[in-house]
Amino acid sequence: GIWCRDDVTIGSLKLDNFTLGAATDTSDIRGYRQAEFDGILGLGFQSLSEFDSPTPLRALMESGELDETVFAFHLPYRGKGELVLGGVDPEHYSGNFSFVNLSRPSYWAVAL
């Protein structure tokens, strides 16, 4: 892959001149060519970022596009899923949130 700069738009959110990694060969990514998407969005921690480049979530916070550094997924068994950046969609949950500690502080891993 290569590092490049480009304007990135995710829904109504925009990052101008954002530094990102671009894949130059996707042949080893199983199912990539048949999938209905055109990219991969990394949601890793800033500590894992290469070359001190901000992650997309961090860059959106720093640019003022987001009020909170949070994201939420809605992954239904059938139909289309949803990624919400900067909050949650109250249509997809009920009750209160519970928070748990991460198993490893640099990864989205929790004990089950």
Which helices and strands appear, and what pairs or packs with what?
Elements: E1 2-10, E2 13-22, H1 56-62, E3 71-74, E4 82-85
Antiparallel strand pairs: 1-2, 3-4
User: What is the topology, as strand order, of the major beta sheet?
Assistant: 1-2
- Report the radius of gyration as a whole number of Å: 16 Å
What is the distance, rounded to the nearest whole angstrom, between the alpha carbons of the first and last residues?
35 Å
Q: How many strands?
A: 4
Largest sheet: 2 strands, antiparallel
Family: Belongs to the peptidase A1 family.
Domain Peptidase A1: 1-112
GO biological process, one term: proteolysis
GO molecular function: aspartic-type endopeptidase activity
Describe this structure in words.
The chain has 112 residues and is mostly beta strands. It has a domain at 2-67. The chain is built from one helix and four strands. It has one helix at 56-62, and strands at 2-10, 13-22, 71-74, 82-85. The chain has a two-stranded antiparallel sheet. The chain has a two-stranded antiparallel sheet with strand order 3-4. A hairpin with a 2-residue loop joins strand 1 (2-10) and strand 2 (13-22). The radius of gyration is 16 Å and the shape is globular.
